[in-house]
């Protein structure tokens, strides 16, 4: 593709089409809010059409300062994410169909558009631009409810996202210095001698912040639940998956990722267990789920990369479905606390059924979407003979069942009766949840179209998720884990939910960090005041003295005209001398 | 389960003894069937990666133990990190 100019390159980009849709939608005044989301949905359809029309290839080649950049690269890896991002964007628009919040409606499309632009970026500069747009557009969702708590959380969120962007920019400079190219391809953490490259390390941290690596993860639990019932769903999909797509492209086979991913799958399980806010439970679930994907990327075989990105595809659908079901409960009852929910199955039966379908999918029950993709990652650990990682993955699978498979539906719809008798979710929400639930089952029973979308279809050609041994192994793991739950409930050893919050890594910057910062600000202010006082008293004294000499009553005032003439003449002479000297 | 706001309401289907017994009964039967199937050669992997995979009921034992461990050990984490709900409100 030649250099055809900026405007055609932008106009052909599906991400730009979505962005234009978001902007046009935002221009519609609130009096006509009813046509906003239908219009945006038309743009999603146009973008999807454009994606399929273009097919595989590189488009929108340009040069910036003489460097070639490729704004649009549709290859099997980016196509898979582009397809599922379109599905998620459409379902998110449908879910809160009657929203009248202009900023939030804008973000509901502009933020997915930016994430789409990022996965489709063929070069690092384009990636960086969309990376930052994703950060800025998504914060409107965090700010959605408009309270002081959401404002502060949004600022913390933005700080961390921009930090990731700044690191990405630094990484791009380092990569360019090293390779002389801005192309976005495999970067790797180590050089040929096995030493860690600075460029790779900086890029890995930039991606790792967005992927919510352990200790870099807590912006998810801090910011996402602050958005409203619909905003959290949108947030849950895109940022972490853009990071997964970027990791899959730049760091396939980076062994460190296996261990990072293993930690990611384990620690959120324990935090999710004791968390009372079901939105936060699902945020920990995001960490855990991305951990599976990161492990798949770390193994770096064709099959494990298929597993990682295929799992991302299915996860976007069932994790959103769980967020949507909890969102419907919040919409109807005003709370997402496990202690205040329960018994909703009586009046929200459809939402309950959809939630259970999402729960069985994320738990990877045979017949559901999680089963046909997660197995690829677990198998990769087997192929690598990494028994500890294999055991970690199985342990984490039991953990997923605990917090996402059981806790979410059980405490929302069953458990102790909260006495709340809300109406069933509105039709638009039910349609969005129903479509997601349908996809969970459709992919589960007929995974072949998804397999064909994977980056290495040949590596999945002889993979049979429904091999008898695989079904039996999985059913043993899950059914006996459910049995453990039943036993613990019956003997009353399952811990009761407690209205509380739990400290996590964000405590470090929200309490001691904030204290240190406040102290530093106070110290700087005190020093500044001291210096100002010293300087200003000196200054005032000097002014007084000048006034005494040169003021109307001063000694110099008496000969003012002569003195002034002498001074002026001296200055003019001096200037003339300098000019003459220079000329 | 007592329902204070809707005292005269009939218990919902999921709160009836019959449903609970049926659910638990089916769960136990399915779990036992899955464990038993693990010992049949046609349900075993032809080329296992690890020895434990050939143990028949390995996945059942591991699933039960992992779940029980997560719940029984995990709840103690609350003592370390649990705080009142307004913890951050006081500090921000």
Low-confidence stretches of chain B: none
**Any idea what the radius of gyration of chain A is?**
29 Å
Greatest chain-chain interface?
A: A-B, 59 and 55 residues
* Proportion of residues in helical segments of chain A: over 70%
Q: What's the helix count of chain A?
A: 22
Category from helices, strands and their pairing of chain B: mainly alpha
Give a description of the structure.
The complex is a heterodimer of chains A (583) and B (92). In chain A, strands 1-2 form a two-stranded antiparallel sheet. Chain A has helices spanning 6-11, 14-27, 36-54, 76-95, 102-120, 124-142, 148-179, 198-211, 219-223, 231-250, 256-274, 278-299, 302-333, 349-362, 369-383, 387-413, 427-445, 448-453, 468-490, 506-510, 512-550, 560-582; strands spanning 57-64, 67-74, 501-502. In chain A, helix 4 runs antiparallel to helix 5, helix 13 (302-333) runs antiparallel to helix 17 (427-445) and helix 16 (387-413) crosses helix 19 (468-490). Chain A is globular, with a radius of gyration of 29 Å. Chain A has 22 helices and three strands. Chain A is mainly alpha-helical and 583 residues long. Helix content of chain A is 71%, strand content 3%. Chain B is mainly α and 92 residues long. In chain B, 52% of the residues lie in helices and 2% in strands. Chain B is built from four helices and one strand, in the order H-H-H-E-H. Chain B is flat, with a radius of gyration of 22 Å. Chains A and B meet through helix 11, helix 16, helix 19 and strand 3 of A and helix 1, helix 2, helix 3, strand 1 and helix 4 of B. Strand 3 (501-502) of chain A pairs antiparallel with strand 1 of chain B, so a sheet runs across the interface.
